[in-house]
Amino acid sequence: MAKSKCFYCDGLVFEIQTVEILDCAHQHCFIQCTKCGMPVGAVESYNIGQLLSKQSERDAIFRASTHDRLLSIERAFRRIEQALLKRSSLPIDGEAGL
Ligand SMILES: [Zn+2]
Q1: pLDDT at residue 29 tops 80
Q2: Alpha-carbon distance 39 to 15, whole Å?
Q3: What is the whole-number distance in angstroms between the Cα of residue 38 and the centre of ligand 1?
Q4: Rounded distance, CA 50 to CA 55, Å?
Q5: pLDDT at residue 96 in the model
Q6: 26 CA to middle of ligand 1, Å?
Q7: What is the distance in A from the centroid of ligand 1 to the CA of 15?
Q8: Cβ distance 32 to 40 under 8 Å?
Q9: How does pLDDT run across 37-92, given as a tens digit for each residue?
Q10: Is 31 helix (H, G, I), strand (E, B) or coil?
Q11: Tell me, what's the pLDDT at 93?
Q12: Tell me, what's the pLDDT at 12?
């Protein structure tokens, strides 16, 4: 089997190193030569706990927003219902004099 080597120093051993990339949503790791530090690849590194926490926050905001919208719709229906009930209790035109 062919063995990978660093194109810069011919090193044969590699390590994974977490790196911070500005304005990048996900953390990345470089696969780099242990001898000279030359990166030979990069992979995304997911912090599943952090991702779940962020998703949970988004879900909570969505639920609260949905709940507020449902309450608003419910209040609007109540107003419509009350207006219809009020209207139905009024005498129909022409029947008042009977
Ligand atoms: Zn190297």
Answers
A1: yes
A2: 9
A3: 5
A4: 9
A5: 52
A6: 26
A7: 11
A8: yes
A9: 999 999 887 778 888 999 999 999 999 999 999 999 999 999 999 999 998 887 76
A10: strand
A11: 67
A12: 96
Residues 38 and 7 sit within 8 Å (Cβ to Cβ): yes
To the nearest 10°, the Cα dihedral for 45, 50, 54, 56?
120
- In the reported structure, the alpha carbon of residue 44 is separated from the centroid of ligand 1 by a whole-number distance in angstroms of 22
Q: Which pTM value belongs to this model?
A: 0.46
Residue 75 to residue 95: CA distance in whole angstroms: 32
Half-sphere exposure of residue 15: CA atoms within 13 angstroms, side-chain side: 9
SS3 state at 98? coil
Could you give the 3-state DSSP secondary structure of residue 36?
A: coil
Other CB atoms within a 10 A radius of the CB of residue 32 amount to 20
